[in-house]
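Entries read chain and fold; for instance:
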Amino acid sequence: MANNVENDFHMPSIKIKKFFIASLFIVNIAIIFIIWSNGSSYYISNPFVGGGIYIALGRIAGLLGEYFLLIQLVLIGRMRWLEHLFGFDKLNQIHRWTGYSILILLLSHPILLVIGNSIANGVSYFTQFADYLANKEDVLIAFIGLVILVYVVFLSVIIIRRRLRYETWYFIHLLTYLAIVLALNHQFETGDLRGGAYLYYWYILNFVIFGMILVYRFLRPLVLFIRHRFVIYNVVQESHNVWSIYITGKKIDDFKFKSGQYANINILSKGIWYSHPFSFSDGYNGKYLRFTIKNSGDFTSLISGVRPGTHVIIDGPLGLFVNSIARRNKFLFIAGGIGITPLLSMSKSLVNRGVDISLLYAIRSNQDMVFKNEIDNLSNQYANFKIHYILSTPTTGFDTGYVDEEKIKKFVPDFDTREVFLCGPSAMMEAVNKSLKNIGFSDKNIHYEKFSF
């Protein structure tokens, strides 16, 4: 791969950018507390008079909930600069916990206000709640938005989420935008934003973030499509349940990416047009893009029926799963199943530079193996690339078992001098990550990204 495509990330620059983002986040939190302390000064000064403490806490919960809701939009906004700083997996974790925080804050907001105002007005909780809904239109609409958000977060709970098909989860999460729109007017009607500088600040905060979402999530993929006219020119079956799609287009050599990265793709064909993240399974070559997709029983079961000539919208490249974040110049790649795709791409880009790579490829059986010819060709051509296949089903000519401490020590004796890149099913990565920790690896030398939803 050309050097201009695989430029290293500059660690000092990354640290400065992260510090700037953290500072911006904290400054906004401080501004929100200043807004609250001024707008709710009476209730803060008189916390035990007329339910003041409940009203004050309810107002700050609402402001913080609305702010974190905007942060949530940024986290799911597919902003390249943000993903290149933190990586998909880290942002996904923050997104999940931010969602739970939003739920707590936005539920606390009406509950605390109802309690506080019912005390102040000398009425029951139910009467106060009914009065809000009946006499304040913005509150009623915002409450509908809150119900939608609760529904989305409820379905995001791990136990429930695992029972959902990806497309169901995808469409349910689109409701988040509806919920935010419904609550928008209520934000500007809050008692703490009475006008002047505070109200203008809140307007700017909202419209800047909505503007970034519009640009990165919607306009940028459209611009890329108009520029490159991405189209599938070949579909190749790699195994009994895995297919590769080859994509070309106008000026395809100008669409550059780093090996290990991924893109969100929309195949414009019936039943599979919605967005899904897939890793590039081949390195940059200036001729085509390759994505390799396993039939997992959802919309991926339709990939085999995609016809050449079908157009594709691509949003990317994205992700921080790239060799340039490594602190060592020797690598241990561990792949599970279809997780071979980014690691094969990275291997191809590194071996011709003389980089020492050991690849452990764990699969169920030889029928599930993909790209064996490409992997073996690398092994035969480059002495600095070593491959070890590990099959969970006993098969003649292959090692049997799982990637564990014993296998790592056996096949890669100098494991403790290497940087680890890990990709595979979530359960497999958790088990391997534990094994790596047990033999002395630290988090800073282990890299992985999970596309679980």
